[in-house]
């Protein structure tokens, strides 16, 4: 029998999760997915992929075992107030994607006794290449079910609660950070002779190659960098120029600033 999943908040992330859940046989054989938002016109296209689209949170929740909350942090109070009459601690496992909102804060709104887990996926869920960090909880059976769901969308890692903000920055915001690198690399590529689409293809495939080298070997990045930097060659010249201009420092500072911002989100 399939597990009913309700994704409440079909915005950028909610849509990415739904798309990923409809893309593979593994996921679509395991899960029946409903996505809700108030303005359903914008996500009606998901119905073509076998996803149920609705503005009716109450019905979606009544049918579901797994509830994935994907509204903005400022929208949670209103949402919980609406679904509270049909929330049932025995039936529901709640997985929240909200940045900077703790399980305790959600429990204050739902009332006690619920199995609430924070999860931090990213938009690569749309193509089943997400990195999802999942909060370690005492609710082991619920944790297993949430891991199983997000494993169909990419890789998962169970982490302690206090690292959820760090995972938000590194994994979820990280998609935007790496994309900005690819855009900048493409712009550099155009300066040295490529058309924009050629430059983007080369930069994107090279980024995929670089990360795959690490994922396939567990090698340190610097070990793989050393294989590229021919003595007196052009790689080390370019790399050192980037560092003179603060590449690593800019990335580290950006990640720290993003992390410091999380507590101010609500
Ligand atoms: N974007 C990302 O890459 C990531 C986001 N997150 C977290 O996920 C959450 C969503 O982010 P994101 O997708 O970017 O934000 P969006 O604003 O794109 O999505 C939020 C969605 O929630 C819907 N919504 C608001 N209120 C309700 C309601 N009462 N019932 C049903 N739907 C509702 C809105 O649609 P409508 O107005 O039509 O109802 C909107 O589409 C945030 O908490 C964020 O911190 C986490 C990891 C990555
Ligand atoms: O920018 C944000 O606040 C959300 C959380 C992680 C990605 N997007």
Describe this structure in words.
This protein is α/β, with parallel strands linked by helices. It has twelve helices and eight strands. The chain has helices at 12-23, 25-30, 57-63, 76-83, 103-110, 140-151, 164-172, 174-191, 196-217, 221-226, 234-244, 247-262, and strands spanning 3-8, 31-36, 52-54, 66-69, 93-96, 115-120, 130-135, 154-159. An eight-stranded mixed sheet has the order 3-2-1-4-5-6-7-8, with helices on both faces. β7, α6 (140-151) and β8 (154-159) form a beta-alpha-beta unit. α7 (164-172) packs across α12. The longest helix is centred in the C-terminal third of the chain and has 22 residues, at 196-217. The two termini are 39 Å apart. The mean pLDDT is 97. NADPH dihydro-nicotinamide-adenine-dinucleotide phosphate (NDP) binds at residues 8-14, 36-39, 57, 70-73, 75, 78-79, 97-99, 120-123, 172.
Summarize the structure.
Belongs to the pyrroline-5-carboxylate reductase family. This protein has helices spanning 12-23, 25-30, 57-63, 76-83, 103-110, 140-151, 164-172, 174-191, 196-217, 221-226, 234-244, 247-262; strands at 3-8, 31-36, 52-54, 66-69, 93-96, 115-120, 130-135, 154-159.
């Amino acid at each position: 029998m399939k597990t009913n999943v309700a994704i409440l908040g079909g915005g950028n992330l909610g849509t990415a999760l739904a798309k990923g859940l409809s893309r593979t046989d593994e996921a679509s054989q395991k899960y029946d997915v409903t996505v809700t938002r108030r303005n359903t016109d914008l996500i009606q296209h998901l119905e073509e992929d076998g996803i149920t689209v609705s503005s009716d949170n109450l019905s979606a929740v009544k049918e579901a075992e797994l509830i994935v909350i994907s509204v903005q942090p400022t929208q949670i109070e209103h949402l919980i107030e609406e679904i509270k009459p049909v929330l049932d601690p025995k039936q529901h496992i709640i997985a929240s994607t909200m940045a900077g909102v703790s399980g305790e804060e959600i429990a204050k709104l739902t009332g006690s006794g619920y199995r609430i887990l924070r999860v931090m996926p990213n938009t690569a869920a749309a193509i089943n290449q997400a990195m999802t960090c999942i909060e370690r909880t005492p609710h082991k059976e619920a944790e297993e079910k949430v891991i199983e769901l997000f494993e169909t969308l990419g890789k998962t890692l169970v982490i302690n609660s206090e690292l959820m903000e760090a995972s938000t920055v590194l994994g979820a915001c990280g998609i935007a950070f790496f994309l900005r690198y690819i855009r900048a690399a493409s712009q550099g590529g155009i300066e040295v002779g490529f058309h924009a689409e050629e430059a983007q293809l080369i930069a994107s495939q090279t980024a995929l190659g670089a990360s795959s080298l690490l994922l396939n070997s567990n090698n340190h990045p610097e070990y793989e960098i050393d294989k590229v930097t021919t003595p007196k060659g052009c790689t080390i010249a370019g790399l050192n120029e980037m560092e003179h201009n603060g590449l690593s420092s800019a990335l580290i500072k950006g990640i720290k600033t993003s992390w410091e911002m999380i507590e101010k989100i609500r």
